[in-house]
């Protein structure tokens, strides 16, 4: 049996001049307000992506380390940028894979998130190999333990966060919120943290309601207590961490007279967790 892994992430532009095309991909053809685009370019400029793009670099480091650990080819595929998921699938098939393991660098399932990655991968493979897709891993003990280790001894109030999504997913019976709360509960329990809450972050202004509470409003409710933010819905450092938490939320906390710290992201320390997930899905690799 020949196996290859397609390791998927959101993707991020490497150059400022690519931001319009990247944003257009995220919007999927829907219009973009010029001021939103300007704001986004400015955030990427301040993040310094032309010198060092954290999401793309960390994804590559993770891919290379997972390939070494598993001893099978691992190809990176981005949902909204290059290399695309379809390119990664072609590389896997070109290398003779009969089973393609689909693994997303996001732990919690939503039809708008992991479901969308899955659709892209399955369309690309188009029946030419079996797809063994890992749909969720937010309650995986190895992941829970990894995040809990970063929280041991926390004396501030812990706020778990994840990317918001349009609130209509609740009417559609989407499991996203339940999975996030369950993950947070398991991590808090494993770390012995009793003083915790959950908030969403990074909602877009798309003209429809998004899931809340948003971290910025939530901080107002928590003030003046110090907080430790644990972005449980993300794996690596990227714009939504380095800007939305490290700049926006920290500025807001400072204005409210509170201290805001954030736990270190897993980044490539996630590799042993990913290895277990792949081995469980393809027992022949154990
Ligand atoms: O570092 C980087 O360059 C990329 C950081 C990044 C990550 C990320 C993760 C998630 N998103 C999710 C959902 C949405 C929905 C929309 C949306 C929009 C954006 C925009 C940027 C962006 N997201 Fe993102 N997301 C990242 C970056 N995201 C930039 C566009 C500007 C803005 O709206 O703020 C709204 C689409 C629309 O307009 O209709 C929905 C979810 C995740 C977590 C799972 C994952 O990583 O895939 C869910 C990282």
Notes on the structure:
With 286 residues, the chain is an alpha/beta fold. 43% of the residues lie in helices and 15% in strands. The chain has eleven helices and eight strands. The chain has helices at residues 19-27, 34-47, 54-70, 85-94, 114-125, 141-149, 176-191, 215-222, 239-242, 244-255, 271-281, and strands spanning 3-9, 74-78, 99-104, 130-133, 157-163, 196-201, 227-230, 260-262. The chain has a four-stranded parallel β-sheet with strand order 2-1-3-4, sandwiched between helices. It has a four-stranded parallel β-sheet with strand order 6-5-7-8, with helices on both faces. Strand 5 (157-163), helix 7 and strand 6 form a beta-alpha-beta unit. Helix 8 packs parallel to helix 10 (244-255). The longest helix has 17 residues, at 54-70. The model has no long low-confidence stretch (mean pLDDT 97). The structure holds ligand FEC. Ligand FEC binds at residues 10, 12, 23, 26-27, 40, 55, 106, 112-113, 163, 165, 204, 206, 233, 238-240.
Strand order of the largest sheet: 2-1-3-4
Tell the overall outline. Answer: globular
Sheet-strand content, in percent, reads: 5-15%
Distance between the termini: 13 Å
Mean pLDDT, all residues: 97
Strand tally: 8
Give the % helix: 40-55%
Number of helices: 11
Question: Which consecutive residue ranges, at least 5 long each, have pLDDT under 50?
Answer: none
The description of the largest β-sheet is:
4 strands, parallel
